[in-house]
Every structure is written in structure tokens, then in C-alpha cells.
């Protein structure tokens, strides 16, 4: 079954079936609107305790969100707002935001750049094979529908994998993968990305 999942995932990637950036992601080709960024930074003030103003998480149970694709951030916030995804804190926060505020705070965090550096003595060949197709060996995703995992706390990654396995979270790709993983395999994948050094920076031209 696991080989089938890998084969299916590879086919989806090569066929371009996974979601791609929508027109909202046009900021990748053009500089973000300064006023929209300013408005987004104001909204981000309510996120700073957990995620920091730059999107580098301050607590282990919160993910790094700086440098994530704008469409991914919008989708997650709207999922919390509608109840499609649940969390005692994020549901309350997202429910208080208008669609315009969601768009602008997503723009703010997405305009940062994230990079990941593998620990000394490791190589990309050591990365968990079921993860690299979407999240890359260094945890910096190249897909609009997949988050970065570089430097995420292992407890956070394990919690999300178990949520996909139990059905608390549902995703076309992650659900079948998580259901095939043992607890030990989840821990190994979580430890791999936990040990990657993540850097989130604001580009000088932005």
C-alpha cells in the first residue's frame, strides 16, 4: 500500500494535479502593495505572541508561517473560520477576521522568505521519502498547497500527522499517507524536520 501511495503521489506531482497558485499569488511576480502590507502588519499584531511578527514561531505548538504561500495561509485561516479545521485558539482568532483582513495578514506573512539548512553530517538522501515530494528534504516546500516544515517542532508535526490519520484533519494527499505511517515513522519524520535550521527573513526590496 505504501508503494502505491508513493507512486500515486509521484504521478500527481508529475501530472501537475496538485493545486497551484491562484491569481492572489501575483505578489510573487510584483512587489506587494505597501498599504496592503501595512494593513497586514497591523492584523499580524494579534499573531505575534505565538507566531511572531516575522512568522517565526515563539512557542513549539505553533508553526512557523513566515514565507508560506499566500494562498496556503488564506486557505488555513478560512478553514479555521468556517470550522473545517479546528483549534481552540485559531478558531477564535480567525472567526474575528474579515476576508479582507485574512487576505492582508496572509500577504504580510507570505512576503517573508524562508530557508532551511540540513544538520551537519546529513544529506537529502536521509530525508523521509514520503515527505520530500511536497515538502522537500530541507523542509521548504515548492508547492502552493504544502506548508514548509523546516524547523517545525516535532511535537507540532506529530500532532498534525495524527490529526490526518484520525480524520480530525482531512486532505487528499496527507490523509492516506498518514494512515499508512506507524507512530515510530511519524516521530522519525517529525524529528527530521525539527532538526533543520530554519531562517525567516524580510527581503530588502520588500
Provide key terms for this protein.
globular; 5% strand; 206 residues; 2 strands; disordered N terminus; mainly alpha; 10 helices; single chain
Report on this model:
By secondary structure, the chain is mostly helical. Helices cover 48% and strands 5% of the residues. It is built from ten helices and two strands, in the order H-H-H-H-H-H-E-H-H-H-H-E. The protein has a two-stranded antiparallel sheet with strand order 1-2. Helix 1 runs parallel beside helix 7 and helix 8 (154-166) runs antiparallel to helix 10 (183-194). The protein is globular and about 45 Å long. The N and C termini lie far apart (46 Å). The model is unreliable at 3-28 (pLDDT under 50).
Amino-to-carboxy terminus distance: 46 Å
What percent of residues adopt helix (DSSP H or I)? Answer: 40-55%
Strand order of the largest sheet: 1-2
Shape: globular
In terms of DSSP E residues, the strand content is under 5%
Q: What are the segments in which pLDDT stays under 50 over at least 5 consecutive residues?
A: 3-28
Q: Averaging pLDDT over every residue, what do you get?
A: 88
- Please report the number of helical segments: 10
Oligomer class: single chain
Rg calc: 17 Å
Largest sheet: 2 strands, antiparallel
* SS-derived structural category: mainly alpha
Q: From N to C, what is the helix and strand string?
A: HHHHHHEHHHHE
Q: Tally the beta strands.
A: 2
Short characterization:
By secondary structure, this protein is mainly alpha-helical. It is 48% helix and 5% strand.
